[in-house]
Amino acid sequence: MMISITSGKGGVGKTSLAINLALALAPSLRVLLVDGDLGLANVDVMLSLAPPVTVKHVLLEGRAIKEAVVASGYGFDILPAASGVAELAQPDSEMKGQLELGLKALAREYDLLLYDTGAGINPAVLWFNCLSDYILVVFTPEPTSITDAYALIKVLFRDYGQRNFLLLANQADEKEGEQYFAHLARVINRYLGFTPQYLGAVPKDFELEKSIRLQRPLLVRQKEARAAQAITRLAERLKIQLALKDFPQAALS
Ligand SMILES: Nc1ncnc2c1ncn2[C@@H]1O[C@H](COP(=O)(O)OP(=O)(O)O)[C@@H](O)[C@H]1O
Ligand SMILES: [Mg+2]
How close is the Cα of 6 to the center of ligand 2, in Å? Predict the structure, then answer.
């Protein structure tokens, strides 16, 4: 099973959510968190890790993908990206082919591969999303974040036949999240002709910001924080959703 965590607009909270969702899921699932921002590593920085082998060594120097996998120290594993390697920001088709084979091999050893992607509609982001069984789109109540989420979904649906979307409102309270989701779902329904699923909301929480500065995940530092409780609930919902597999089949393209 592969799920991408993605967004139209940058800085909406993908990496923080990916790390904390991985933590919440790790006790019951074997999780590999893949840093999908290949040229600009995020995940290892947020966890204060310095992985010796990264995806750069795999794609550019012929190392085996398994050599790059490291334990996060929190019950899940990480496939780290490279920091500041421009070639990897736009992987060519040979690199993508190699990476796809590697990821599919790794997927056999885990219950879940989580892809923390970059933002927007650049080819690498679209590629990770198309590889995934489910696409978790993060948005915030900012108008630009919502229009960019719609734009990303539109491209993935129209041009790539994807329709297994799960929406997550970050930095929003429950009511706000539902309102913005309803708005987005109406637009998607009217213009694209399908209804996306809603995973839920994670509130704005100073403890989450603090966790990033301290490079220690919120779910480790402050399990009782509002955002931590919300993420724990969403992880449970995600597990149920995955078990039900009640998504509409992705259109064949
Ligand atoms: N729920 C939240 N509450 C408070 N701040 C948040 C929350 N989610 C994200 N942030 C802030 O947004 C910034 C960007 O988060 P990050 O996870 O790096 O986003 P992305 O991976 O989408 O670029 C963080 O530094 C953090 O300060
Ligand atoms: Mg990020």
Answer: 9
Residues having C-beta closer than 5 Å to ion ligand 2: 14-15, 42
CA–CA separation, 133 vs 212, rounded Å? 28
Tell me the mean pLDDT in the region 118-139.
Answer: 96
- Class of CATH domain 2-135+204-244: alpha beta
Exposure string over 198-230, b if 16+ CB within 10 A, otherwise e: bbbbbbbbeebeebbeeebbbbbebeebbbbbb
**Nearest CA, atom 17, ligand 1:** 13
Percentage of residues in the chain with pLDDT exceeding 90? 90
Structure tokens at 21: 């969702």
CB-ligand 1 contact for 41 (6 Å cutoff) = no
pLDDT of residue 251: 36
Judge if pTM exceeds 0.90. yes
Ligand 2 centre distance from Cα of residue 240 (Å): 26
Q: Can you give the residue ranges of every domain in the chain?
A: 2-135+204-244
pLDDT score for 244: 67
Among 72, 158, 147, CA closest to 116: 72
Mutating to test ligand 1, I would choose from 6, 12, 16, 125 the residue with most ligand atoms within 8 A of its C-beta, which is: 16
**Which of these ranges, 6-15, 175-184, 237-246, has the smallest mean pLDDT?**
237-246
14 lines ligand 1 (CB under 6 A): yes
Q: Which atom of ligand 1 is nearest to the CA of 11?
A: 23
Q: Is the pLDDT of residue 105 over 90?
A: yes
| CA atoms of 117 and 42, how far apart (whole Å) | 10
